[in-house]
Design goal:
single chain; alpha/beta
Length: 315
């Protein structure tokens, strides 16, 4: 078996057919597919079962504990492939994604490979979220979001691993609802494994389409980040702490403005933030409505993550 593909999913009837069809079209490889469903209530399970009737290399696993870490940990020991691919259902992959990844890993230059992502959405709010998640102002210097070069990196989305990586460093930390892949990749680095990002594996990822889901997502990213950083202290970078420090600054600034007559310095820092927000919101070729939405999306992203991280440190 060349590659074992693990696909965690929940209510992905809109995308699951496409990803299964595309994987099965890669005839150059022997592939097994594990669809790990977290209790979908739409037509996802029915679609997968229809594929299973015609393709015996597909297995449906019911993740009763819902969270992806549990699903991964239950599935990975069952994988027979030389390599293990983690593919999100909510994404569009380039043609021959697995074949390309297989070739890169076979070359011996790395132990884990993946590609950068471009974000996309269907609603106006979603398109604003997609843009902000690809911006340096929104997400910092995250390589897989902003880099256009092949390079060795700290982490990649939708990775393909040598199976031995799991054998040697274990599986995912089930305490982590979010950021479990970051933690795993930090541990892989510490064990001496190399992670490579190839532009040939660039993926289009569909983001949240409304602010409610977006805020919840980034709050959870922040909430579980302290566990990752405390476990992997050498991985801490300034960009990880900026949103939480900024949230603290805003909180104490509000107190200062309400209680002290001299707050020019506080206001000046707010003005600087608003200027940067305005610059990155409008310095693009997006429509006017998306530019205006960006003015809201950037602060929501920063404060959701920052407040979540403060809550995580407290917890």
């Amino acid at each position: 078996m060349d590659i074992s593909v693990v696909i965690p999913c929940y209510n992905e009837e809109k995308y699951i057919h496409t990803i299964l069809r595309n994987i099965l079209s890669e005839k150059q490889l022997s592939v097994e597919i594990f669809v790990v469903d977290a209790g979908s209530t739409d037509g996802t399970v029915s679609i997968v079962n229809n594929f299973i009737k015609k393709n015996d290399q597909i297995v449906l696993i019911h993740n009763k504990k819902k969270y992806v870490s549990y699903g991964f940990n239950e599935t990975i020991p069952r994988c027979r492939g030389k390599y293990i691919s983690i593919m999100g259902a909510h994404a569009i992959y380039p043609k021959h994604f697995l074949t390309e990844a297989f070739g890169i890993l076979e070359s011996g230059i790395c132990d884990v490979v993946g590609g950068p992502i471009n974000n996309d959405a269907e609603t106006l709010i979603g398109k604003s979220i997609a843009y902000c998640m690809e911006s340096v102002f929104g997400m910092g210097n995250s390589d897989f979001r902003i880099s256009s070069k092949d390079k060795f990196v700290d982490t990649v989305p939708f990775p393909v691993y040598k199976k031995e990586v799991f054998s040697n460093i274990g599986v995912y930390d089930v305490r982590l609802i979010r950021n479990q892949d970051d933690d795993f990749h930090y541990r892989a680095h510490q064990a001496g494994y190399k992670i490579f990002m190839s532009q040939r594996l660039r993926v289009v990822c569909y983001v949240r389409e409304n602010y409610s889901a977006f805020i919840k997502q980034f709050f959870q990213y922040g909430l579980f980040k302290p566990i990752v950083l405390l476990k992997n202290k050498r991985s801490v970078k300034i960009r990880h702490l900026v949103p939480s420090l900024f949230s603290l600054y805003v909180f104490f600034s509000c107190i200062i403005i309400l209680t002290m007559p001299q707050y020019d310095m506080v206001l000046s820092l707010f003005i600087i933030y608003l200027f940067i927000d305005f610059y990155f919101s409008f310095n693009n070729n997006k429509s006017l409505i998306i530019k205006l939405l960006n003015l809201i999306t950037f602060p929501l992203m920063h404060f959701s993550y920052g407040i979540g991280m403060l809550a995580g440190f407290k917890k």
